[in-house]
């Protein structure tokens, strides 16, 4: 999905700083000076919460074979004739409850823009004008293709592609990388590229998570009985097929526990956002919080370490569906600790990951 008209070849070389290469004929096309691009990528967002905006977004998302790997011969008729006739209404209603009406966009879009602006400031302070920072979405707008083309047009001869997923999964990091490489297939002059690996165990990221927990707990008169670290789920089959996501989530929780100086009774790992008939990674958050309430854990806090920015899965699913499950089972106090978003410690952690991955390209 493209959010803007593609640039033609001539437009790619009209940068104000473009120059004719040394020793080239006078009629040689001008070429922009070489830059390094840093392209941040998040999951995506619908353009609006109306039926057709939601249908376009969900169709792109649920047609991705990395997300739903069932045979298209079986899946597409079900998707097009059943799921996409009903789900856009319910998903749209959920988005409406969290929508940023002032800016006419989803919270994920707002937060990703804020993150990009702050990382851009950090990169400018570190590298000056030699590094260009922008963002794209895997699904929806701004599309990966449009932003890759823009970076090349601005003279980026090297691009660092950064999927904003702390833990690697085929359905998140891999599909973002797939789309990035598909965008490169349409470029006549491809830049050199790198992709950023998962940063689930980076000390600065763990420390940023710990600081957010400490701030939340410090503001409470009575501390929660347990912290639930809720990660987005994937089918259990993916783990058995070699996807490292489950293991990386468990390690993030362990490192967070150690950083906070806690024992096992104070923190637990769960998985949310189930879809489809097969078994997903367990325990399921929506069920586990009810189990905790019935077991006497009347005060809980929930954090979502797999999300770099608050979105429908945190603001609506955790703060509404999962909260309701806990309270209906006898819970008394439910606290959602927001994602790291554009918090200063998070921006520092992400900037550090970027700087580590730019080594050898720019110093």
Radius of gyration, rounded? 22 Å
CATH class identity of the largest domain: Alpha Beta
Q: Determine the number of helices (DSSP H or I, runs of at least 4 residues).
A: 11
Shape: globular
The SS-based structural class is: alpha/beta
> According to CATH, what is the topology of the largest domain?
Rossmann fold
Largest beta-sheet details? 4 strands, parallel
Please, what is the average pLDDT?
93
Order of helices and strands: EHHHEHEHEHEHHEHEHEH
Number of structural units classed as domains: 2
- The low-confidence runs, each spanning 5 or more residues with pLDDT under 50, are 1-14
Model description:
- The protein folds into 2 domains: 10-198, Rossmann fold (3-Layer(aba) Sandwich); 203-337, 3-Layer(aba) Sandwich (Rossmann fold), CATH 3.40.50.1400.
- Strands 2-1-3-4 form a 4-stranded parallel beta sheet, with helices on both faces.
- Helix 3 crosses helix 11 (344-358) and helix 9 (285-294) runs parallel beside helix 10 (312-328).
- Strand 3 (156-163), helix 5 and strand 4 form a beta-alpha-beta unit.
- Helix content is 45%, strand content 15%.
- With 363 residues, the chain is of the alpha/beta class.
- It has 11 helices and 8 strands.
Write a short abstract of this structure.
It is built from eleven helices and eight strands.
Describe the secondary structure blueprint for this structure:
Elements lengths: L34 E11 L5 H12 L9 H27 L8 H21 L3 E10 L3 H10 L2 E8 L6 H15 L7 E4 L7 H16 L7 E7 L3 H5 L4 H16 L6 E6 L12 H10 L4 E5 L8 H17 L4 E5 L6 H15 L5
Helix pairs in contact: 1-2, 3-11, 4-5, 6-8, 6-11, 9-10
């Amino acid at each position: 999905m493209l959010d803007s008209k593609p640039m033609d070849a001539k437009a790619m070389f009209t940068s104000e700083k473009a120059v004719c290469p040394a020793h080239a004929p006078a009629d040689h096309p001008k070429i922009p000076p070489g830059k390094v691009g840093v392209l941040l990528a998040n999951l995506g967002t619908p353009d609006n919460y109306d039926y057709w905006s939601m249908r376009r977004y969900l169709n792109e998302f649920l047609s991705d074979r990395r997300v739903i790997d069932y045979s298209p011969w079986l899946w597409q008729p079900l998707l097009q004739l059943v799921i996409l006739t009903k789900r856009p209404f319910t998903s749209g209603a959920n988005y409406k409850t969290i929508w940023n009406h002032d800016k006419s966009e989803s919270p994920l879009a707002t937060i990703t823009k804020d993150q990009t602006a702050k990382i851009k400031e950090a990169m400018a302070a570190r590298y000056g004008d030699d590094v260009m920072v922008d963002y794209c979405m895997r699904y929806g707008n701004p599309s990966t293709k449009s932003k890759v083309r823009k970076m090349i047009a601005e003279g980026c001869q090297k691009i660092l592609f950064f999927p904003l997923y702390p833990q690697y999964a085929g359905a998140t990091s891999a599909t973002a990388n797939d789309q990035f490489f598909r965008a490169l297939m349409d470029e006549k002059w491809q830049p050199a590229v790198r992709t950023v690996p998962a940063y689930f165990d980076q000390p600065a990221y763990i420390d940023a998570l710990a600081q957010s927990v400490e701030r939340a707990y410090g503001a409470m008169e009575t501390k929660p009985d347990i912290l639930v670290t809720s990660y987005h789920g994937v089918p259990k089959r993916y783990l058995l097929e070699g996807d490292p996501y489950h293991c990386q989530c468990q390690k993030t929780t362990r490192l967070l526990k150690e950083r906070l100086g806690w024992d096992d009774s104070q923190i637990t790992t769960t998985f949310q956002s189930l879809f489809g008939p097969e078994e997903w990674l367990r325990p399921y958050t929506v069920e586990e919080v009810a189990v905790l309430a019935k077991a006497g854990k009347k005060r809980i806090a929930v954090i979502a370490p797999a999300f770099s920015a608050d979105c429908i899965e945190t603001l609506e699913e955790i703060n509404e569906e999962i909260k309701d499950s806990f309270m209906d089972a006898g819970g008394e106090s439910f606290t959602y600790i927001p994602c790291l978003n554009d918090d200063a410690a998070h921006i520092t952690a992400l900037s550090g990951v970027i700087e580590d991955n730019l080594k050898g390209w720019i110093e």
